[in-house]
Predict the 3D structure of the following.
Amino acid sequence: MRIVEVGPRDGLQNETAPIPAAAKIAFVDALSDSGVAEIEVSAFVSPRWVPQLRDAAAVFAGITRRPGVVYSALVPNRQGLDQALAAGADKIAVFTAASETFARKNINTSIEGSMARFRPVVAAAHAAGLPVRGYVSTAFWCAFEGHIAPAAVIAVVNRLMAIGVDEVAISDTIGKATPEEVARLFDQLRPHIAAERMAAHFHDTYGRGVVNALAAWEAGIPAIDASVGGLGGCPYAPGASGNVATDDIVAALEERGIPTGVDRRRLAASLEHLAPTASTPAVACRKRAPRSAPPAPSPRVRSAANTRPAKADGPLQPGPSTSVGFSGPRRGR
Ligand code: HMG
Ligand code: MG
């Protein structure tokens, strides 16, 4: 299983207190040593929308690249691509959504508009020799539109493939999907896109990130996104949740004899580089001591039907809770 570590981007974009570029660089370098296949290092997005990642170029410039590891960057438009190319990113990721409302809130354009924006970006990335990932956010549920029909996801996946993306990341932005929904969607996507071209991206809001990742693995998906320590949220911040934790994913896969190539001690140690600088509890409280052996399977890993009823069954409200699993733009204007 290919582990895509998205903590430096998806995890840190949620942090409100500035984290120095040096800490981010040390964090990425430590992740490089942990054995993950790919690291989403940062995002070349508008600094008005995501101030925390305004130092993306400095972070790319400072990291030590380990041969074999793919260092990718999130890019919303041509301006972002040019910066990613200048920074020497190995791969870029464009991002749209299956929910029209979310697309507008996240990238200030419609789904249609995003495709028009991405087409030249994908062509230029390919011309420069870079593979392109296309994220489909809100592939299961949207904080604004509720349940998202698989047909809407399939339509966006087909559009992304038509403009030439190499990989599609099916994303549960608010972490509300169940393993059954995951299995069903990948099943429905199969006639449209080869499983090998997909990745699964789960947020862990309702504690189903691991079982959802296992459902994706069972569906033949070869890549799972995760954030070390579940960065991006905090148990003390109700309603906020980060990506599924890389450490949990690695443990769950290895318990099943599925190799990941990741050293869990080194993985956990990477968080040390953030602890002294990150002032928000999101980083500090998710810091975990390295465990010497994989934990016994938790009930939620064993039971695909597991939910946290109180939260999982409650309605999703737009408003502050819409930042669940997603930092949301913080516009400075
Ligand atoms: P806009 O305001 O419509 O952009 O935002 P614009 O083209 O009108 O430009 C406005 C200003 O932004 C201009 O600067 C541009 O130069 C600047 P000004 O003249 O006003 O000083 N600008 C940029 N600056 C740096 N880099 C750029 C860039 N582009 C424009 N690339 C835009 C449109 C797409 C730029 C904006 O909406 C944006 O940056 N959005 C990013 C939001 C974001 O990063 N969200 C989080 C990541 S997505 C996510 O987390 C989901 C995911 O994890 C999967 C999942 O879980 O679902 C991937
Ligand atoms: Mg995400």
